[in-house]
User: What shape does this take?
Amino acid sequence: MGERVAVYPGTFDPPTNGHLDVMKRASKLFDKLIVAIAENPDKKPLFTVAERIKMIKELTQNIPNVEVVAFNGLTVELCRRHNAVCIVRGIRTFSDYEYEFQMALTNRSLAPDIETIFIMPSEEFSFLSSSMVKQAVSLGGDLSQFIPQIVLRCLKQKLKQTK
Ligand code: COA
Assistant: This one.
């Protein structure tokens, strides 16, 4: 059997400790975990794709089986390009479930041989979202417990530039 590859797609604008927790857990389950950054212009990301790649590469530098890529288009097509057998998503609360359920079944219709698995991040991160982090930090809130130092630094710098 060849190496087992999984894809963890998301917008990661910016990545939080919750995302990192999912990456660490998922990296233990597969030979290779590809963190796939969706450009997602609809969400009007604060960070460019290049900035998101750089942050996630730094955050995962000690996890040797993590690769970071950016993508446009369908997640399942990205999976095919990388021979991935699985899509990983984090589920934080019950309210995530409906959206994730729809997305998993859509992906299954598009690619029946690719499974989606859900990983629960640690409970202390279960309420985190990138939007909340951006909002709180822009208003001077201290969320240093929930976002990696490098992300906090980049976020403060970015918010200063965009003022
Ligand atoms: N910790 C902290 N926050 C988390 C989290 C965790 N473990 N897991 C999810 N979140 C947050 C994110 O920060 C994000 O917050 P935001 O909305 O405030 O920015 C939110 O939950 C969900 O975002 P994310 O996990 O980045 O997913 P997404 O919904 O933005 O992106 C894609 C989903 C990229 C996977 C999806 O759009 C996709 O598959 N796109 C490709 C097109 C495609 O294949 N379509 C067919 C399938 S439907």
The chain has a mean pLDDT of 95. The CA atoms of residues 74 and 160 lie 34 Å apart. The domain at 5-162 is CATH 3.40.50.620 (Rossmann fold). Strands lie at 5-10, 32-38, 66-71, 84-90, 115-119.
